[in-house]
């Protein structure tokens, strides 16, 4: 299955709320396997970024999915979110 990534340029002209909603949807896509394989690390990454940008649903989903992840998976997701935030 395909892997999807967002670039900040794709979000650039949107308001903060719209950006957070799209990032939340990326998390949902990976959490549910919609058009891709289920990937809890990627889901947590996108939920985390969306939560940082103010999406409350993302904060709740981030907590829910974190409860199912190993420490290694969680560390990987946090690292991926941090990398995305510093490069975009």
TrEMBL record:
InterPro entries: TPR-like_helical_dom_sf (IPR011990). This is Sel1 repeat family protein. It comes from Phyllobacterium phragmitis.
